[in-house]
Amino acid sequence: MSRLAELRVALVLATSTGGVGRHVAAVARGLAARGVQVAVLGPRATNERFRFCAPFRGVEIGARFRPAELLRTSNALLRLRRLTRGADLVHAHGFRAALVTALALGRARPRRRRRPAFVITFHNAMSGSDLRRAALRRVMRRLARIADAVFVVSPDLAADIGHSQRALIAAPVSTPARDTADVRRALDIPDGAAVVLAIGRLHPQKGFDLLVRATASWSPERRVVVVIAGDGPLRATLETLITDLGVDVRLLGDRADIADLLQVADVVAMPSRWEGWPLTAGEVLTAGRPLVATAVGGMPELVGDAAVLVPSDDVAALAAAIRSLLDDAETAREYGQRALRRSRELPTDDDVTAQLIACYEGLAGAS
Fold first, then answer.
1. CB distance 12 to 83 below 8 Å
2. C-alpha span between 118 and 144 (Å, rounded)
3. Cβ of 22: how many Cβ atoms within 10 Å?
4. Are residues 34 and 9 part of one domain?
5. CA 25 to CA 40: how far, in whole Å?
6. Inter-axis angle of helices 315-327 and 329-343, to 10 degrees?
């Protein structure tokens, strides 16, 4: 007999402005629709951004673990321990959430002590120096041994952590609210100019500095406007680089009209230095837009043959790939059609929910 309606599940995440928050919001909706008693625990600012449908409880798990944040992290740990006390299962999304959750729950297995079952989804690789990455990898492997189930979003994470259970991530589907002409006018795109769109947080991981440099290498014969939707800590650096190179790159800030922007994009660029299973790429595919991306993390597996893939940190290759699609309308259309075909093969929200329900019920039945 299914215990689905009796399951009490807590989803935990740290500060998020992008893919992890969007994924957790979709998971919460799917679980609630299936009758699971689900709550979301995380920073209040993250809830303000994603408006989780499930009951929300504020737990301030910050973006980084620094000495100045030890008190806040300690408070988060104590609060998380209290809030998860009545849960059957706690599912932490991301390294920071997993670490605080592991400390809050303790090491004992559910049968030995009445703590909830513990599930982790690792969404991101570790960044920084080789020494830092090696140290954090050891912590991730330790967390994986403590957890009752572990999911990873990309093959390189599976190799790093030693777990091959892949998390299903659904591609967002959004509907444009304005027609192409209105969007071009709002963006002040000159008649006849091509549009290259990039979407994401202004962070070194996303490689937008490479895109700005690639823009500077193009011949001015055909007007190309590059627009980047997103905000983040690299904004001032990018503004300086744009000014120094004298290129037409526009930083739009955070946008709620990504579907509208995708409509006007002749090419979408994702020059990331690493990606797991990026929701943005899935959104580009469902919109049927030609995509140039870097062959990093889970990107090759996600896009298949539906995108032009280039090496990471290779400005020349990035510039050439984007320009080739801008100059060859037939090839660009072909990649747009491939994108639509590939999007129909990607996991849906129902697939994601079914995978998690199977995991949760298995753990509940074993406790």
1. no
2. 10
3. 19
4. yes
5. 9
6. 100
Give the tens place of pLDDT for each residue, 224-263. Answer: 999 999 999 999 999 999 999 999 999 999 999 999 999 9
Distance between CA atoms of 174 and 12, rounded to whole angstroms? 25
Q: Return d(Cα 327, Cα 331) in angstroms, integer.
A: 9
CA distances from 228 to 5, 211, 212, 225, 283 (A): 43, 10, 10, 10, 15
Q: How far apart are CA 133 and CA 152, in angstroms?
A: 17
The residues, ordered by sequence, that sit 6+ positions from 94 with a Cβ below 8 Å of its Cβ are 13, 14, 16, 20, 121, 122, 123, 124
Q: Is residue 159 part of a domain?
A: yes
Q: Tell me the sheet residues that pair with 293.
A: 270, 309
Instruction: State the total domains in the chain.
Output: 2
* Furthest C-alpha separation in the chain: 71
Q: Are residues 100 and 145 in the same domain?
A: yes
* Mean pLDDT lowest among 52-66, 106-120, 151-165, 333-347: 106-120
